[in-house]
Design brief:
Largest sheet: 8 strands, mixed
Number of domains: 3
CATH architecture of the largest domain: 3-Layer(bba) Sandwich
Structural class: alpha/beta
Helix content: 25-40%
Number of strands: 18
Bound molecules: flavin-adenine dinucleotide
Distance between the termini: 20 Å
Mean pLDDT: 95
Shape: globular
Order of helices and strands: EHEEHEHEEEHEEEEHEEEEHEEEH
């Protein structure tokens, strides 16, 4: 019982890379960022290959909770302190654009991924959290976004007895993220060459750049790394730390318990109910932050037990757990992703490190970095440039000790 609800990670639909392939652009990683990059290139005329170590959406993109929220992994006020008011607004715009783009693709290609836009609610466990949430919502409203304070008495039951209030954001959405990734890959169609079960073991920079797997290689003038938590295995100098998250999903319940996606305790706890009635609960990483790191998708017994107990506390004893899994997030030192050129290496680009909020922005970041990679000038916030972490070319000596 360690496979996610959203996709079967063993389910491969594309061949393994065999022999030498030459393309204009190679994308490494088949999650939201990777298929986003492929989507960005769909009409460019470039030949494109996407190479994935396991299967499409077998990483964080098929193991998350499916919250499509506005904003990166920090409250608006903290983003203002980090990148200024205008910088924070451009980050929020990027995530709102991401939500719209995902919705329009679901609609256009009839992707069966349960995309729903019924808002979300951030709940407070303490007066201090409520004060911070209220301050955040006030600043977001100033910036033109919709948010409303909900006092404890007006919270939906049973959450009125568990939390002291919250903020409702009407624009937020939810999705089966794995089905979205696989659906977009299908929609892009035959112009995109996808290789699964083909971990890239080495990146040799040059003209062209060469991506080496155990059964072949891809030669490409442009490489886009969408390798998320695994990026530092290929490029050790890129500061992305793998951090684990735990999730459970109950069996289908024949009643609505959770009316829209909810999260609390500064985002450490989150839950929602899928359209077919399953309650998905994730988080509580703060119970054991030191051990919830690394790339091993291992279950944490105590955290899993806490998720079970929470599901039972809101839905009753029949909320039997049918799925439990773990997934790996890629955290950067400032909690903003790195999206742009790899310093010192023309033709190599990154879209990675969403620090736990990639459903909210990875697809759009992948699409826009791909346009940047083919010489266009997409709207990418300057604060996401990988340059901010480097004052010299990034060393690229890379030999992955073992496949991901
Ligand atoms: C438990 C959990 C809950 C989350 N909940 C949410 C949420 O509700 N909302 C939200 O916004 N975000 C959430 N996230 C974060 C979100 O899932 C990620 O930020 C997002 O999926 C990142 O997408 P990606 O494509 O960049 O990375 P990934 O989906 O991790 O894809 C990277 C891919 O690269 C492949 N790869 C890596 N190295 C190599 C290599 N050398 N060769 C070939 N392939 C390689 C991997 O196999 C993987 O498939 C959550 C994450 C987790 C783990």
């Amino acid at each position: 019982m360690t496979d996610p609800l959203w996709v079967d990670p063993a389910d491969a639909h594309h061949p393994t890379l065999l022999g030498t392939v030459e393309v204009d652009v190679a994308i490494v990683g088949g999650g939201l960022s990777g298929v986003g990059a492929a989507y960005g290139l769909r009409d460019s005329g470039a030949t494109v290959a996407l190479v994935e170590g396991r299967t499409l959406a077998s990483g964080a993109s098929g193991r998350n909770a499916g919250f499509v929220l506005a904003g990166p992994a920090m409250p608006f006020g903290r983003a203002c302190a980090l990148v200024g008011f205008d910088g924070a607004c451009s980050l929020w715009r990027l995530t709102v654009d991401n939500n719209r783009l995902m919705a329009s693709l679901v609609d256009e290609h009839q992707i069966d991924c349960d995309y729903l836009r019924r808002g979300s609610m951030s709940l407070a466990v303490s007066d201090e959290e409520m004060r911070q949430l209220a301050a955040t919502s006030e600043r977001l409203v100033e910036a033109g976004y919709s948010a409303s304070v909900v006092p404890a008495d007006d919270l939906p039951r049973p959450f009125d007895r568990l939390y002291i209030g919250g903020i409702y954001y009407p624009g937020n959405a939810e999705i089966n993220p794995g089905a979205f990734v696989r659906g977009v890959a299908r929609a892009i169609g035959g112009g995109l060459h996808i290789y699964e079960r083909s971990p890239v073991l080495e990146l040799r920079t040059g003209t062209p750049h060469v991506l080496v797997t155990s059964t072949g290689e891809i030669r490409a003038h442009t490489v886009i790394l969408t390798t998320n938590a695994y990026t530092s295995a290929l490029l050790p100098a890129v500061p992305i730390a793998p951090v684990r998250g735990q999730v459970v999903a109950t069996r289908r319940l024949g009643r609505v318990v959770v009316p829209f996606p909810m999260y609390a305790n500064f985002g450490y706890q989150y839950w929602r109910q899928t359209p077919d009635g399953r309650i998905v609960v994730g988080g509580w990483r703060d119970l054991d932050i030191p051990t919830e790191v690394g790339t091993d998708e291992r279950l944490h017994d105590d955290i899993q037990a806490t998720l079970d107990a929470f599901a039972a506390s809101i839905a009753g004893a029949d909320a039997v757990i049918e799925y439990r899994w773990a997934g790996i997030m890629g955290f950067t030192p400032d909690a903003l992703p790195m999206v742009g050129g790899l310093p010192g290496h023309p033709g190599i680009y990154l879209a990675t490190g969403y620090s736990g909020h990639g459903v909210s922005m990875a697809f759009m970041c992948g699409a826009r970095v791909a346009l940047q990679a083919i010489g266009q000038r997409p709207n990418l916030p300057r604060s996401l440039s990988p340059d901010r972490f480097f004052d010299a070319p990034v060393p690229t000596t890379t030999v992955l000790p073992q496949p991901v």
